[in-house]
Amino acid sequence: QTNNLAKYEKNAPAPAVSLKDALNSLKEHYKVDIVFGDQVIEQYTVSPGIINYRQSVEKNLEAVLSTSGLKFRKLKNGTYAIVGRMSGRRGASLGVSEAKTPIALTSLSEHLPMLPQTISTETGREPEKVADNPVRGKVTDEKGEGLPGVNVTIKGTTRGTTTDASGNFSLPNIEKNTILVFSFIGYTPKEIIADGKPILNVSLTEESKSLNEVVVVGFGTQKKATVTGAIANVTTKDLVQSPVANISNSLVGRMPGLFAVQASGEPGNDASTLRIRGVSTFSGAADPLILVNGIEVSNYNNIDPNEIENLTILKDASATAIYGIRGANGVIIITTKRGKVGKPQLSYTANLAVTSFTNLRKGMDSYNYARLYNEALRNDAYVTGAVYTPRFTEADLAKYRSGEDPVFYPNTDWYALVLKPQALQTQHNLNLNGGTEKVRYFVSAGFFSQGGQFNNTDLIKEFDANRKYKRYNFRSNFDFDVTSKLKVSLDVASQTENLSGANWPTVRVIEGIGKANPLTSPGFIGDKLVNLPGLGTVVNPLADMFGQGYNRQFRNFLQGSVRVDYLLDFLVPGLSATGILNYQNNNTETLTNLRPLITYNAVRLPDGTVNLIPQNIEQPFSFGQNIGKNRRTYAQFGFDYKRNFGDHSVTSTVNYNQTKYFDPNLAFLVPNGYQGVVGRATYGYKNRYLAEFTFGYNGTENFAPGKRFGFFPAYSLGWAVSEEPFFPKNDVLTYMKIRGSYGEVGNDRIGGDRFLYRPSAYTQSNNPAGYFFGETGSTITAYTRAIEGRLGNPDVTWERAVKQNLGLELSLWKSKISVTADVFSEDRNNILANLGTVPATVGATLPAYNLGRMRNRGFDGDITYNDRIGQFNFTVRGNFTFARNKVLFQDEVQRPFTYQYRTGQRFGQYFGLIADGLYNTWEEVNDASRPVSAWNNNRLQPGDIRYKDVNGDGIINEDDAVPIGYSNFPEKIFGVSLSGGYKGFDFSVLFQGASNVSLAYARRQVRGWFENSGAVDYLINSWSAERYEQGQTIWFPRVTTGADENHNNKMSTYWVRDGSYVRLKNAEIGYNLPKEMLSRLGLSSTRIFVSANNLLTWSSVFPGVDPEQSGTPPGSTIGGTTNEEPYPLTRTINFGLNLRF
Amino acid sequence: CDKPIDQFLDKAPGVDVNESTIFSSRVQLETYIAGTYRLGIHSPFHYNDANLISTSRLFTIDAAITDEAESEVTFMHTESWNAADITPTSAPAGREDERFFIRWTAIRNANIILERLNDVPGLEEAYKNQVIGEVKFIRALNYSEMLKRYGGVPIIDKRFQLTDDFKVGRSSVEDVVNFIVADCDDAIAKLPATYPSTFRGRATKTAAHLLKSRTLLYAASPLFNAATPYLNMPNAADNKLLCYGNENNSRWQLAADAAKAAIDAASAGGFSLVTDKGVDRNYKFVWEQPDNAEIVLAEKVYNTRARTQFPYYGMAPSSIANAWGGVSVIHNFVRKYEKRDGKPQTWPGGTDLLKKYAELDPRFAQTVGYTSSRYNGDVQLLETFQGGRHAADCEGGAWLKKFIPDAVSAGTPNATYNGIVFRLAEAYLNYAEALNEAQGPMPAAFEAVNLVRQRSGMPPLPASLTKEQFRQRIRNERDIELAFENHRLWDIRRWKVAEQDGVMQGAMQGLRITRVTGSTDFAYQVYTFENRTFLPRMYLHPFPNSEVFKGYLVQNPGY
After folding, report:
1. Less CB within 10 Å around the terminal CB: N or C of chain B?
2. Which residues, other chains included, contact A394 with Cβ-Cβ below 8 Å and sequence gap of 6+?
3. Same domain, B277 and B411
């Protein structure tokens, strides 16, 4: 075996090596990208012994470039660019004609079509005038740091210069209105018209969409140019733009292929449901696999976004097959920031935000509530044949109307009593980044605090019922180059969260507000919370909030990883070994304290005075504690191989990994285990033809020995058409790649059940009690009961997903526009599903069978447009995803009518009656040809819904229910962002939307009076004879106190509505203070910014209802019978400051 | 060679309980028996226990489906029944039968125990017999609960294996009755007469007798003991799923014999009518005091319950307990109470309501919370008159007091409820009814019903009653004595009287009560608060469509 090191160190003297070869050697050895123009370096040679592999790549670069006068620059993505000779310290003007080496990057442009247009070396015309009219200035990057080596040319000529080490340039003889072109590798070129002033400062923005970009893939990274899978990512810049606690909430609209629905705004509990390319299975979990730095974690939402370098989603099989059984639903990989060589850089960010609800309903006032209550009773009396007895007399109504007796005839606004308009949110992050050749570090500490918007939360002393969330983040990522061959990374991260507030779930608080009516409690009299018994069940959401006490939850998540990379070049060039050990530990402690709230019942004494009778007595706090914990260990060991042979490049990786997850809640207290061998091999020819093979070979505990390991291969091909010699070089289509993939991925889970193959396990439980035997008061004793578990199916095996993807990547107009588009299809077979046709008479829970089939197809894509107008540069990005699924087979019961089959429909498809307006008159109701209603004993009346008799049998019943609308999870989701900068200012806005989605209103969003419930104010638009005659707005059928069984309350197109929406999801404006001001303070940059989330929403839902908050989990078809109403989504207005030292 | 690899994914041995563990010792087996009781013993009340029935909610009692009561709140399942909104698409029979699914699990448990009992080492024969008797009793109880709701149902007498054909269809009413009776007979033979007090609540010989008695009484009644069913099946051969297909008066004699056997077995089991608390207290004691001498079997899923929990929450008026279920006792029921002299009371309207009340059968005051009476520890003086504190939603004019013990109040919010499944008084009433039907008003029939009347201070029935008169009196007696104990709904269906005006059909009446100035008494007016609908198909429940669509059940007619 030839040793590179030996080659250079020991075989001297040797003939001089070309600089190109030396750079290529460095490229290969350090596995870094070094880009250069062939013409720039072709004339140089270096002495062969100059490279010392014991040193860092940068030292070596300095060495090999030392004689040429060329310089290198490290770009953000880690690529090194070799740039032209810089002028001396004095920054003397250096016309291109004088330069020995024009900055000619012709060959580069072949590889890097996004690079600035090559400066023509053909002789342009000489300047006509040689007057001393100089322009000088400084070229800086986004951070205001000087950029050395930037080409500055006069448009249409060969004249130009490059900037010096500080980024300064100077050009003589520049007339007014001359166009100067500033270009630099990895940065968006800029054209600026000289305005005649002698000073011209220019800021260049980094080209983030460079094809040189390295993207994260399963178990490694790849150059974007060589990727053949469907991958999308966002970087820290986008993530920190959203002033939200939760990472999942900053992703929506940012990436093609990612669906996100946020159902709740509760502090500390507001994560979005994420689905990659929609839903492909009708049973089991559809959540994607989430990895942080390559390792599965239980919770990723609590990571401080400032710690994140990049978040990548892997969409097709070529990207996810390597995760085998866990990759079926796609993979999200979060990569945290790591240290970079350089002096320590300290960054501090502070945010202060105000949150408010995006939208809130209003309760109906007590007069109208009482009036319509009577009307509802009158309507219902017709149905039940009862004698209409008004609940409120005319005198009562008059008192509600006048408000003369606020104690006994109150008009309580529960929304105001229970919710407050604003809460504060703060976030701080301090991070330190830097390192030497040997040690690099990134250390970050963060604090986040979010307040809840509950009001009157201090009714019990030492008890703040408001929901509060505090989070403390810490992360340190260290990289040690122990020797030139051995690299060790040590990552430690911790998230500590404190949640506190009422022990009553927030969904119940919100439900309670809708449930509370305005007249069974006057709210507060003085500081006493008062109820009025005797008007039916009192619903007092404020009292309820205190009813279950107070809880404080302390959660700590700690994880540590050691990663060792060892270069095995001495065995096989390009070979290295990697081992990872990871340990995660989760601890939760919940303390509950309970002290009854004293409420008062109001009683009027004969003398007219009001007596408030306490309903409870002062009691001390009781307390309880609950401890939860779990831990996960992960180990991985494997080999990487990466080598180029001339135009051929080959990489491969293979590793073994295993996971154990310990949790006291796991069935049988047995830890959950996975193991697998995974691998990938890629081949590339001149970056033109690409081929890739990946596989996962995984085992799971859920299947019987012999069936528990599955092999999941994926194949993909890519063809960079624009790299072909025959492809005409042009300025319009500068890059084009076509890629396709086919692969299989698996799933082993259904619900939370484990060991699906084993015979039924029994649980013995005494909590809650099994059964009591014995005599009350003396010998009665609780006996433990045994319950038979789910039966086992020894034949159960993998659910398999076949994923196919065809993608296209384009760059247009020198990467002003870049486009990615993918079409995909996924077929799930052997879906682990429950039998649907097993009679209840079996009396047991039957095992899962591999019996379902489902298909999911669609397309996603994004388009980015970069440009500038004068000093205003901007980027417009749009992404769009469409995914439609279809259940192809499930064990479904026989239905009387074919249109009722769920099979063949999308997952979660709503079914319901077709509402065709309302009956408005008795003539319509009494029409003999009107279909008979199966409900309300067919006693319909004006104001009832007219349903379509789909099967024409003259009866409206469940048989007339057809697929209506879509499901509650959107089929289309999109985001459009616009960002840009002007001098020190930068801004961005993100619009996000979803469609092909249905919203089934929760009960209290569209109904009132039932169960003594309150009513939302817009129910005043319910049908009544008067409203109908007067031609007033009618949104709802006649009022009723009835519940779900009523004719009008059946699931129908009346209650399942279009849930499409468009949101101004995020907006930000920032300003970078001029650097001159800062240097005296020792600051390198300072940015102040204002950002906002969920600013505006456009949708057709009822006012005060958020289209994302149907209250039902994704895929649920329950619809309008749910009581659940999550904590409303919040709008955040944030003020922030970032300081860099 | 992949053994070490595989072991990483294997389950650690011996940490789980499987069927072999259950049948490895008596201690383990007892846990499975306790679980079978929990699933199999029916309660007169509805549950609010997601651990037992995942879909359960707080429901009021089924009395509000009948002429006994009206639910205070409109969202209870009883309202669907009263409006004849019972469809196969709503939860099993309009949520009345929320046990539909767990019942089959109880039956499966029983079948597994019968199949595996002999595998448990070292069991004494007596204990084995007791266990067989218990699980056969539980299986029979579950079948009898299905019989009265659905008619003939599939008979599952062994555990299904995964390879079996699950689609077992309905058996005829006759086969189901015979199946229940055979189980009861075996249980009677094998069960002990008594247990030590620590095992109170387990099935006894007397309980099995009573179950057999009730089943045969239902089987002999007009709904099942008929040549043609209440509605014809589309396929005439299926009519046997609804009734015997012939009327045979000897079925009444079987019912009478079974009831007599239950009465005879009671004393050996230590059961007797409560007669020692005073004629004005005996009846209340029976429903208020759990495990009293008259209780043959009670459901014991819980020990104590809070007033905000099942079952109190489904019964107490919201104006008293801020609960959800207030059960208003309606006048259709109140007028069934005889006067203390055994004569009917008249209700012409007037200003002497309390006087009218005072004349009634002592059981009235022990059952009904009427205006100016003491309700419980929370309410010393009930006000159901117009404008009174407890008048809201009290359409009947009175609140149900039975089953809400004095012990449960705001001050002491927990109490043990009395979930009566069988009590001895039922056996006497069963006997009297069946004997009269079989042989006419025999002295033994009078003797049986009079025992029940006399312990509550009511005079004996006149000996001159004809068979038809006796029938009416015994039916009335059943409604008064067993009121609100979840008998009425099934009695009126088996008698086929549900369609009669004022039973489950037509006008439901209440009292509108007003204060009389210058008097401590109240004026009352009988008024109709509601007209209910009963459709003939409602004589039996519909099976849920979700099951019918699986293709093994023939749906009951009319649905």
Report:
1. N
2. none
3. no
- Answer for the pair B417, B290: CB distance below 8 angstroms, yes or no: yes
Pair (B238, B255) in one structural domain: yes
Q: Does A1010 contact B at CB distance below 8 Å?
A: yes
Residue A123 DSSP one-character state? -
Whether the CB-CB separation of A185 and A83 falls below 8 Å is answered with yes
- What is the side-by-side strand order in the sheet with A231-235? A231-235, A308-314, A331-336, A289-292, A295-296
Q: Which residue has the tokens 């949110």?
A: A425
Question: Based on the domain organization, do B279 and B411 belong to the same domain?
Answer: no
Shortest CA distance to A291 belongs to which of A216, A189, A403, A201? A216
A835 in contact with B, Cβ within 8 Å: no
Residue A619 touches chain B, beta carbons under 8 Å? no
Q: In what order do the strands lie in the sheet with A610-614?
A: A523-525, A528-531, A599-604, A610-614
3-state secondary structure string across A514-562: HHCCCCCCCEEECCEEEECCCCCCCCCHHHHHHHCCEEEEEEEEEEEEE
Optimal mutation site among B2, B8, B9, interface A, most CBs of chain A within 10 A: B9
User: What is chain A's alpha carbon radius of gyration, rounded to the nearest angstrom?
Assistant: 34
User: pLDDT at position A261, please?
Assistant: 87
Highest CATH level, class, for A1-83: alpha beta
Residues B125 and B192 in one domain: yes
Cβ contacts of B426 within 8 Å, gap of 6 or more: B210, B213, B214, B482, B487
Q: Quick check: is B454 in a domain? A: yes
CATH of the domain at B4: 1.25.40.390
pTM tops 0.95: no
B176 and B325 belong to one structural domain: no
CB-closest option in A389, A761, A773 to B18: A761
Residue A243 pLDDT level (bands cut at 50, 70, 90) = confident
Distance of CA A775 to the CA centre of its chain: 57
Give the CA distances from residue B316 to residues A626, A992, A1012, B44, B311, in Å, rounded to whole numbers and listed in that order.
34, 51, 16, 16, 9
Q: A74 pLDDT exceeds 80? A: no
pLDDT of residue B386: 87
Average pLDDT on A934-950 reads 92
Chain B residues inside the 8 Å CB shell of A846: 162
Question: Which pair of structure tokens corresponds to residue B262?
Answer: 């239950």
How deeply is A1072 buried, as exposed, middle or buried, from its count of CB atoms within 10 A (0-12, 13-18, 19+)?
Answer: buried
B459 occurs within a structural domain: yes
| Angle, vertex CA A752, rays to CA A325 and CA A907, nearest 5 | 75
Residues B112 and B129 in one domain: yes
Which residues contact residue B278 at a Cβ distance below 8 angstroms, ignoring those fewer than 6 apart? none
Condensed to tens digits (0 to 9), the pLDDT of residues A547-593 reads 888 899 999 999 999 999 999 988 888 899 999 999 999 999 999 98
* Statement to judge: residues B380 and B428 lie in one domain: no
Cross-strand bridge partners of residue A138 = A168
Q: Do B101 and A840 touch (CB under 8 A)?
A: yes
Residues A750-769: tens digit of each pLDDT: 776 778 888 778 888 876 66
CB A686 within 8 A of CB A644: no
Number of domains in chain B: 2
Mean pLDDT value across chain A: 85
Print the domain residue range for B546.
1-56+99-302+421-486+538-559
How many Cβ atoms sit within 10 Å of the Cβ of residue A633? Answer: 15
For A303, the token pair is 């990571």
State the pLDDT at residue A129: 44
Number of inter-chain CB pairs under 8 A, A vs B:
256
Give yes or no: residues B398 and B464 share one domain: no
* Contact between A842 and B8 using a beta-carbon 8 Å cutoff: no
In a domain, B133, yes or no: yes
In a domain, B94, yes or no: no
